[in-house]
Design goal:
This is (RS)-norcoclaurine 6-O-methyltransferase. The chain has 353 residues and is α/β, with parallel strands linked by helices. The chain contains 18 helices and ten strands. Helix 16 links the parallel strand 7 and strand 8. Helix 11 packs across helix 12 and helix 12 runs parallel beside helix 14. It binds S-adenosylmethionine.
Length: 353
Amino acid sequence: MPELSNKTCPEEELDGQALVWNQILSITDSLVLKCAIRLQIFDAIHRHGSAISLPSLAASLPTPCLRPTILLRLLRYLSHIRLINITNDEHPSFSLTPSSSAFLVTTSKQSLASFITIFLDEDFLAAFHALDVCVSGGEGEGSAFEMVTGETVFGQAARDPVLSHKFNEGMAESARITAAAMVEGAEKVFEGLRTMVDVGGGMGTVARVIRRRFPGIRILVLDLAHVVDGLVGSDGVEFVAGDMFVEVPQGDAVLLVRILHDWSDEKSLDILQKCKEAINPESGKLIIVDIIIDDDKDHELHHARVASDIMMMAYGGKERTEKEWRSLLLRAGFTRCNITRIKALQHVIEAWI
Ligand SMILES: C[S@@+](CC[C@H](N)C(=O)[O-])C[C@H]1O[C@@H](n2cnc3c(N)ncnc32)[C@H](O)[C@@H]1O
């Protein structure tokens, strides 16, 4: 019988092993996060107002926890991924970290809880299980979501009011973070504008933040009828139901926040054509707010930007490199562009005809 070798694992082999184990188990991060949001752990700790003991936390969850030892394991993992602080004593207590306090408590202005609820939903995650089918191809250029469900996310939202509401809430929530970064880091982009059309502007979250900072701009939010019907305009923000593939209303500028990343290059060119028709060729401009995947590989958000491209592969659309953005804009007939970096996943790209 061969003897078992006692040889130690070379350093690079251990690194390789760690890399693969970490990737296999990295799904844990997203799903533990979703679990904690569902159990409302961050909200319960926030409501308590100070570090909370395990029995108090277990009792204060909306669905009281009957298995505190399992809750403790979950909290230990949340601490490992730096979303919870745990005191290191015999009877530990738990508190929020700056990240969970800002982004995971539902009442926080920057909360991403609804975004997590919709995009880590079982039906959405099913698309991730079909990435291989999506890569192999087949009919058309559909997303994995389309291959699994037979329709696009927007198509499904149009006929399912519950999904539509959840989707729009998730979008509005994450839009608050983007919009705040836009008016803080790219204010020059909006200076001097009198009218702007926010194409695919959803429930008007971005429009309202811009309007508050620039009260001189009148903003028209264009979105599909099922999104804007019933929304009431006020304070210089108006809603119009329409289809950006058919017509975009006129304005000094056309704003596209997280729109082109939902579409293939060919569809994006159709949208850009309608945007071009809506602005003055001499003085008008296009303002795109979307991810540039390859900008600053050392940036804190670089991994999230690259991973977003895979999320778009699953749910529909694509993120683009700077070269791809420049080429798309040139093909659409925009001859000049300027990129402004803001403190968000997305960048602000201005383009002129
Ligand atoms: C990813 S969301 C972005 C929403 C918003 N701009 C934001 O950043 O929060 C895409 C938006 O495009 C809208 N949309 C999809 N197809 C559209 C169409 N054909 N015409 C107008 N809006 C459309 C959707 O309803 C949705 O509100």
